[in-house]
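Fold this: Monooxygenase
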Amino acid sequence: MSGVNGASSSDHHGTGFAQVAPPNSTGVKVIIVGAGFAGLGCAVESKRKGHDVLILEKFKELKALGDIISFGNNAGRIFERWGLHDKFWAVSSHVKTLMIHNAKGELLVEQPNPDPLFGAYAYNAHRGELHTMLFEYAQSLGVEIRLGQDVSEYWETETEAGVISNGERVAGDVVVGADGVRSTARTLVLGYEDKPKSSGYAVYRAWFDCAEQGVDKDPLTSFICQGKDLFYGWIGPDVHFLAHSSRDGKKLANVITHKDDADIAESWSFPGKMEDCLKIVEGWDPRCAALLSKAPSLVDWKLVYRDPMPTWISPGARLALIGDAAHPFLPTSQQGASQALEDGVALAVVLQLAGKKNVPTAVRAWEKMRYQRVRRAQLLGESVRDMWHKAKPEDKGQAVALPRPEWLLGHDAEKHAYEVYDSVAKEILEKGYERPTLPVAVPPVGA
Ligand SMILES: Cc1cc2nc3c(=O)[nH]c(=O)nc-3n(C[C@H](O)[C@H](O)[C@H](O)COP(=O)(O)OP(=O)(O)OC[C@H]3O[C@@H](n4cnc5c(N)ncnc54)[C@H](O)[C@@H]3O)c2cc1C
């Protein structure tokens, strides 16, 4: 099987530009800070577009970290185009139905989970596994990835941009700050010192092997590991708990979001206490405590919030922030990683279209074409959380179903960038650049 659209191609999008250009054919040198999904995605697409790419990454060695991560169909179509479908699909969960219950365990909605949807697959899998595959794919394309690099300064001139990494000056045409939710690029490039704020919520998360933890032996939990992947959700006032099995029901991911005003920095490894976690579901459907208590350990991840930044790019438009560095997401959006990927892909396309002499126009056009879309996707995540946490007893069916809007999941970031670049760039050149504005209204869930 090779995805819905066949193997990756070198089709044009009717623009006269090759989707896969000869190596180093544009002469654009892209320096990327961070080898998360944003940085790797930007690197892969940049390589495909004929740019010269260098990634500078802080970690010293690649480790398969994290637990469950979601890539929507909008990201899936990009991975498939890169020829990664078979590998990604093999480790992804294949859920047919989303089963959402109230705290008493009454089924509120049994929502079909069509996959593919809007012509592409979604991938829900272990973050570390997908990350390792993407990392190795980038290397196989010849992307240079330097590990153990700590980028401490960013600079730009009229003709160049660069960083200081481990004390060494590295120069290129454009620098992409893809250094994640605790980005130093935010401060160094844009001057924002905004500390993350508590969103008022936190998540206990865990990923483990069902057989090792006896999930299959307990009559309250064995339903989730019966040889197929299942997605069960429970919602109550200010809480939602998602239990998601994968690998034919052999692995289980538990994610429970609850009220928490503690003020700590974001972390993926802050240990959580099981007794605190279980208190949240006291009096709930007993399957909840049974599933949660099977986890050998918990990560206590405080969900922080940041006000949207008025811009993601530097004054000279040769430094751009992408992914979590520019716009952190709530997990209920299920779009943080997908939007990070879209950012990098769109940026690579506009740099190809603009060429080496017009990098600042490309970067400004990129911000303009991405900004409102990303904000809408962020707001949708907030709407879903509120829909679940404030559900009324009579809410059932569509009133609590996970929205899957076509504007979000049917989007093709590469195609879109090819389609709109000329008109966006023309407007910038004719009228000057104005920072993008935020969308005025929160889209209703399901819009
Ligand atoms: C270890 C880890 C585990 C995660 N686990 C999950 C999970 O289980 N589920 C989930 O939904 N999301 C998880 N995330 C977050 C998720 O990957 C991101 O929200 C999303 O993929 C967007 O990615 P990003 O590339 O923008 O940021 P990130 O994935 O955070 O990547 C940023 C990269 O930049 C590097 N970096 C930071 N500072 C510097 C510097 N000064 N110089 C050079 N490099 C630097 C970091 O080491 C990191 O590799 C995790 C992130 C990390 C880093």
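Residues 359-389 form the longest helix (31 residues). Residues 33-39, 56-59, 65-69, 127, 149-151, 178-181, 184, 268, 323-325, 336-337, 340 surround flavin-adenine dinucleotide (CB under 6 Å).
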